[in-house]
Every structure is written in C-alpha cells, then in structure tokens.
Amino acid sequence: MIVLGLDTATSATAVALRLADGTTREARDDPAPGGHPGHATRLLAMTDELLSHAALGLEQVDRIAVGAGPGTFTGLRVGIATARGLAQSLGAELVAVSSLRALAHGAMGSQQPRALVATIDARRGEVFAAAYSPGEGELAGARALPPGEIAALLGEAGLAEGERPVGIGDGAVRYRAELEAAGIHVPADSAPEHLLRGVAIAELGVTAPSVGYGDVLPDYLRRPDAELALEGAGGGAS
C-alpha cells in the first residue's frame, strides 16, 4: 500500500510518502520566524516533488492520511480540503490522524523511553495537549488549556510522583518555563522531537480506519476566533 501523509496543523507544511515496501520519504516547509505558513501554495507542490523523486504518479497512491488537528484553523481547513479533493478525484481511501498523536509517534520513533506530553501552540495563551505512554497508549486526552494548568493533564495521566515526562512540540518550546515548572522535561528548541512529521501521519495512516470523503472534519477542540469575535460584537444574539 502506498500512503500519502499530509499535515498542516502547525505553521509547517509536512508531506510524506510511505511506499509499498515500508520505506518512507518526506518533505517539509517551515516558514521563517514571523513568516506566513505556505500551506496553500506548498502542499500540492511538495506532493508532486515527492512523487516525482519516487518515480510514482499520483494515481498510484492507495490511501491519503491527513492530520485532522488540533491545530491552526486555516491550516487544518487547507490540509483537509486538499486531502478530500485528492482522495475523491483518485478514488483513494481517506483516513484522519490526530496531529497530537502523530507528534508523539514521531518522538517515540527516536526511542524516547518516557511518557510524552505532546503540545501544539494554540495561540490565545493556550496549548493543545495530550499525554501518551512509551507504547503510544493515550494517558490523557487532547484538550486546550493555559500552559500554567498543564499539571492537571499530568494528574489525569496518572504519572507516578517523581516521574518526569518529556514535553514536545511547538507549544512546549514556546511555553518551556511553564512546562518545566510542572516537572516536564523539554528538549532543546532544535530537537527533532518537536517536529510534527509527515512520516508519522503516513505511518499511522496505514492502520487508521478508512472513512467517507465528507466525514473527515477538523478537530478544532475549541471555537474559531472569527466566531468568538462575531459573538463578542453582538452578532451571535438571536
């Protein structure tokens, strides 16, 4: 089975191919600090480049796996719409993968022996976070919360006193001080564990259940900024 993995949950655009023999190829585009994400312009171009390097045509893709979030609202919409359109036009299977689980899966691939707190910067002073065991079992489900309240997630995860989990992702990098104060070890900002990789999406996509093209929806975990702004301006009144 040839699986194409796409993720646009963060500012990065991540694409990967898992070939029939189990080998993988990947590409990513990380905007410069302060720069705008290139999801809309880079996603299909990077897909074409990967397929070309693998001497494959798009019609040879059997399954498309897409990161369904949580993550940035615009990024998720771009990624999921692209995955839906490609899968439907090709008649390929479509699967959704948790972006937080993919983040943990990529870090587990680096032989990380400790429990992981996967985080994605949620803006508005919050992080999207979930905790996973070394075997990738979910210890505490995904939620949006202020980084100063991350201890609540650790309590739900049932970690033993003195057990120091590892915090990964751009949320852990941005809120290092708050996570470390809660007893979480955060690797150096440049550590590969912080990257949400397309390979992880593709690998998890192999066993994820196939769904209908219209059934893959963004997992926002909270309401969009535009909706809240409209409500705050009185637009939500009946």
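Next protein, fold it too.
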Amino acid sequence: MSEKFESLQGDGYPCVIAELDNKIIGFANASPYHTRTGYRWTIEDPVYINPNFHGKGIGLALLNEIIKRSEKLGFRQMIAAIGDANNSASIGLHLKCGFEMTGTLKSVGYKNGHWLDVVIMQKALGEACTTHPYKTDHPDILF
C-alpha cells in the first residue's frame, strides 16, 4: 500500500491514513477516475476501514479530509464506486458527505461466490463544472 500511496501522491493525488498505536486502521485516497485525458479533473475515492473500527467516525473524518484536499488541488468531481449495493454503511457515509446517487451497475463484480451490483455516487467539488478547469497562469498547460 505504501508504494501505491507514494505513486498516487507523486502524481498529485491526496492520501490520508488513520493510525492507532502505530497500526493502520483505515485509509482514504483520491485516484484517477479514468486514465483518458478528458477525465483528469474527476477522481474516485476509495475509503477502507478495518472492520474492528467501523462506526467510530473514522471513515467520515478520512473522506472529509480527502474531499477538502481534492478541492484545494482543483479537482471538480468525485466518484464513489461502492462495490456492493448492500453496503449501507459506505452508502450512508457518502450521503453524509454530500454525495448523490447517480446509478447502479448490475452484476459487474464477483466476490465470495456472488455477483455484486456497484453503486455509483458523485459529489461536485469546488467550482465543479461552472468554470474552465485550467489555470491560465500555469506554465505547463497548453490550450
């Protein structure tokens, strides 16, 4: 995981970790939603919490921090792809953070002998789609 986080951070994506007694009990990060250039302002937000620490507000704190950092970095949309339509805790967490339900992908995951539906949720970040995403004072941006 540390290699994954280093790679994401090196590419400009935020990562946060929750620790207790020098043990990781949860993490969240922003990662590319899609690798094609047109989607570079949209990110996905994996959030993982050790099951022994569910219901303690750790996921809420991590997700809120990732949202805040992502907005500061100029990202415009955040997508949650929740890998089980029955995961009411993850759906509830995202609703608390202002995500909206946008759809369900039927039977696209397979885990533990069962086909899973994936719930798609979305949150607008910062200026969302109201302005051009590029900063014109950035020397590396070409129009």
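About the second fold: The radius of gyration is 16 Å.
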